[in-house]
Amino acid sequence: MTSSNEIIPDQPLVDDAALLAFANFLHDDVTPRRRTLWFVMLDGERRPLPVIVPVDHVPDEPDPHMVNDLGSAWREILQGEPGASILLMLERPGSAAASFEDHAWRVALRAAAAEHDLAVAAFFLATVDGVVALSPD
After folding, report:
1. Which domains does the chain have, with CATH numbers?
2. CB 54 within 8 Å of CB 35
3. Could you count the other beta carbons within 10 Å of the beta carbon of residue 5?
4. Angle (nearest 5°) at CA 22 between 105 and 110
5. Which of 24, 56, 71, 85 is the S-S candidate for 119 at Cβ 3.0 to 4.6 Å?
6. At what angle do helices 100-115 and 64-78 cross, to 10 degrees?
7. pLDDT tens-place string over residues 83-105
């Protein structure tokens, strides 16, 4: 298993353990005070590109306009990167128990990526309790 201490720039995130370690590296054991959506662009070999974006003041439930804009932005950023994908992390206050809203964000963001022919490598939920994968039902 890859730990966050073993994150090496330009190293591919080849499996779920490496993706989780990278998400833990981003989260860095902070105590979230508001909802923040992080997205990391990965190239075709699953190496993180130098595009790591935190989006603050994320509403509790997905806003269709915001989600569409994110999908368009991802497509624009990853244009010319065959096989690229996105690592997503929703960071929020509260416990690690996934809420209806967390799942709504997962569904909406995965749909936006699919609409723009982009793959989601992983979707994580980060709370004071740590980082967990938020997988499909």
Report:
1. 4-133 (3.40.140.10)
2. no
3. 8
4. 25
5. 85
6. 40
7. 999 999 999 999 889 999 999 99
